[in-house]
Amino acid sequence: MRGVVVPLVTPFNEDYSIDFPALEEHIEFLQKVGVHGIFINATTGEFTSLNLNERKLLAERGRELVKSAFYLVGTASSNTVEVVELTKHAQDIGADYVVIAPPYYCPLNDDALFTHYSTVAESTDIPIILYNIPSCANPLSVSPIKRLALEYSNISGVKETIDSVNHIRDVILEVKGERNDFRVFTGLDQHLLNTLVLGGDGGIMACANFAPEVHLALWRAFHEKRFEDAFEHARRLAKLSRVYDLASSFGSAIKLAMSLRGFSIKPVLRPPYMMDGDEVKEDIRKLLAGVLG
């Protein structure tokens, strides 16, 4: 798996029930434009606002809908036993990968993080993408990433949602350098080009929910060695990524941007998250107009 992977939003109705028709429409759109992977129960999908049964139901429905892209399922939890249960479920329904963020809320050292992930890796066979998101969970330093990658063949890659070129560099050089099939993805739209330049494999990026054409254009230009075009698309992604700075949460930013671009997904977040109002929506509209026209 390489390329542009989309961490899906979870569509909700006004009563906070899951809007499955909107989910189906969005997945169909993403496959039509040609994204390389689709990731359900992601951070962007508000997985912490879903109960266990809803997460399984979404994973099953997504598996039915995703046909022309790699299919990834988020199975993170602060409870190792629950992570194993969700990961086994993803394996049983035929997902291609699971993506697992570290436990959140309780601080853990590297040894505890290694034990958490090794327990899951030893309990399942499905390829695992580690998910480093230090703004929301225990950070994964290079050392446990490398140890896990070298000891477990089914730990297949990492999503790096970290605003550090040096960290991504070190993971690529120290981990991918010793295990060439280990995949390194950025989780930040503005880091896609530099991740590719350093030898990474793509990105798992939330703005691809509403502007996947920009991410795909950068990917194609880079691999076709049209570097001036790649630079231009990277500048557009850098500007688009400012959408996160305009809203109170990533979920509000992405769903407002989607509504402004005409997607049928409603601008509804489950509490405790709240949608931003008209002022923020107007700021996002101006940003999108300046970048996407």
Automatic annotation (TrEMBL):
Tree of life domain: Archaea
Binding site for pyruvate: T44, I204
Active site, per annotation: Y131, K159
SMART domains tied to this protein: DHDPS (SM01130)
Compartmental location: Cytoplasm
GO molecular function, one term: 4-hydroxy-tetrahydrodipicolinate synthase activity
GO BP term (any one): small molecule metabolic process
Sorted UniProt keywords: Lyase, Schiff base
InterPro entries in alphabetical order: Aldolase_TIM, DapA-like, Schiff_base-form_aldolases_AS
GO-annotated cellular components: cytoplasm
Entry's transmembrane regions: none
Keyword Lyase assigned: yes
Main location: cytoplasm
Subunit structure: Homotetramer.
Protein name (record): Dihydrodipicolinate synthase family protein
Native organism: Thermococcus indicus
